[in-house]
Amino acid sequence: MKKKLIIAFIVFTAIGLGIFYVLTTGNVGTKYNTVAVQRGEVGKSVQDVGRISSRNIRRYYGNGTNKVEKMTLTLGDYVKKGQLLLEYENTMDLEIQKVEKQIQALEATYKNAQSGTDMESISSARIEVSKIRSELESTTKDKERTEALYAVGAVSFVEFEQAVSDVDELQRNLAIAQNTYNKLAKGLSANLREKYEAEIDVLALTLEILEQNKAQSVIYADVDGIVTEVNTFEGDSPSPGSLMIEIQDPAEKVVLVDFMVDDAINVKSGLEAKIMDFNLDIDIDNLKVNQVYPKAFVMLSELSVEENRQTVEIGLPKSAEALAFGVEVETRVMVEAPREVLVVPSGAVFQKDSKQHVKVLEGGALVEREIITGIRSDGKIEVKEGLVEGELVLLNYEED
Fold first, then answer.
1. Which of 19, 84, 203, 333 has an alpha carbon within 20 to 30 A of 305's alpha carbon?
2. Which own/partner pairs from 230-235 qualify as long-range (CB within 8 Å, at least 24 positions apart)?
3. Which residues are bridge partners to 398 per DSSP?
4. H or E element, residue 15
5. What percentage of the chain exceeds 70 in pLDDT?
6. Which of 378, 398, 337, 387 lies closest to 358, judged by CA?
7. Are the beta carbons of 306 and 298 closer than 8 angstroms?
């Protein structure tokens, strides 16, 4: 009897050890969270924070010489093109009167020397020639700058065309003014005419400088827009180059995004974009990239790390006019259009020996497999090689 009990005990012990071995070393108690490889649409995009701005911004700076005599603007004012913005104290009128008297005296001197000649008309014609020449020189330089900006896409063809037209018009006006002067001065002797032109040109130049200074004492709006910055007041003497007034055109609103250069290099004009901000309930899609600014710059990150960045401009529809300037919004640009490919969740892929791998469920067991991946988007990864549709890959592993 004792012998039977001992045998039974040995048998039950062996069975228990077998069960314990299975429970501790086999697959019992092991859970595999798998997901099927399937086809799906993925595209490549770049994303960063953008800010609402305008394509048409005008900024007005202090000259450091005069006090502000008149200035009634406040933040948020809507101004029209040509509206008076600011007026400095004007000290040029007296100086201009002095030069005008000198011109009259010069006319009287040459009138006595050249009896019967209308020196007043000759002086007016010569001053007009001098003014147009000076204006033509300045406008030609502006045209050259505009042409250089147009070559890199920083200004539109319309702006470049207008600059060329301005130069052409002044050249025609100069030819007319010069012809008028030549006719009036025909009666002057060569020596007298040469001496007179030298003296009148000096006075004309002085008069032009004074009139330019007088013109700079009054600032008018260049565009219709909203006053977004005011940094001066009546009685103030703004320092040279300091920003006094900023105006932005709300009809030309855009989003400016300072992408990392590595991302910006993939962005091209015409690509689709969207902006979103769930806190402000902003979600606008079907936008287009207007341009990528040609000049990159360096800025410090929040961790004081230098970053190379490049600004991308994205157009906004009329419906976005209510968005406040300066508002920051998450912005996404699609650099590769969505296409149908094999995909797996990004949580299924891991890196090993600088290559991408997954664990595939084969016959109830996990087999590690190398794969070739492509685009990553919205938590999904394109699989170019290594898997077929329908296979199960490990998403995560849990052990009870």
1. 333
2. 230/73, 230/74, 230/75, 232/62, 232/68, 232/71, 232/86, 233/68, 233/71, 234/68, 234/69, 234/70, 234/71, 235/67, 235/68
3. 31
4. helix 2-25
5. 86
6. 387
7. yes
Between CA 336 and CA 333 the distance in angstroms is 9
H or E segment and range at residue 314: strand 306-315
pLDDT band (50, 70, 90) for residue 289: very high
Q: Provide the CA 76 distance to its chain's centre, in angstroms.
A: 22
Full DSSP string of 267-286 = --TT-EEEEEETTTTEEEEE
Q: What whole-number distance in Å separates Cα of residue 188 and Cα of residue 119?
A: 10
Q: What is the mean pLDDT of the chain?
A: 83
Between residues 56 and 91, the one the model is more confident about: 56
String of DSSP letters for 184-222: HGGGS-HHHHHHHHHHHHHHHHHHHHHHHHHHTTEEE-S
Rounded to an integer, what distance in angstroms lies between the CA atom of residue 235 and that of residue 68? 5
Q: How far apart are CA 140 and CA 134, in angstroms?
A: 10
**H or E element in which residue 65 lies:** none
Q: Assess contact for 104 and 259: CB atoms under 8 A.
A: no
Tell which wins on pLDDT, 399 or 35.
35
Joined tokens for residue 360: 């595939």
Distances (CA, A) of 242 to 53, 61, 64: 21, 5, 9
